[in-house]
Amino acid sequence: MSHQEVIHQLRGLVRRLRLLSVLQLIPDTLVIYGILQLAFSGQIVTLFNASFARSQAVLVTALFALIDLCVTGIRYNDRLTGKRLIGQLSGRLTTPEAELIKQFERFK
């Protein structure tokens, strides 16, 4: 891959990681919400104005956690891909390219 293709791919990864960081807040919040509702409810648990038996509420919360885990896995794979792309860069980097690498490294 040429130097410009690597930089283009890295720009796309930085945009995607930025989006995934914001998106990760949703399943994180859902998991915390589900756990809190389970902790402070009896046999009937209310999630988003819907009543669930405790076992069903546990299942719903587990599904929230699974979604959270999937988003985390996607972010992990993108970070690995970015590290490989950065490893392919050789020679002197321009200032914008160095800033792009710094932006990528913030997503650890």
Automatic annotation (TrEMBL):
<protein>
    <recommendedName>
        <fullName>ABC transmembrane type-1 domain-containing protein</fullName>
    </recommendedName>
</protein>
<keyword id="KW-1133">Transmembrane helix</keyword>
<feature type="transmembrane region" description="Helical">
    <location>
        <begin position="52"/>
        <end position="74"/>
    </location>
</feature>
<keyword id="KW-0812">Transmembrane</keyword>
<keyword id="KW-0472">Membrane</keyword>
<feature type="transmembrane region" description="Helical">
    <location>
        <begin position="20"/>
        <end position="40"/>
    </location>
</feature>
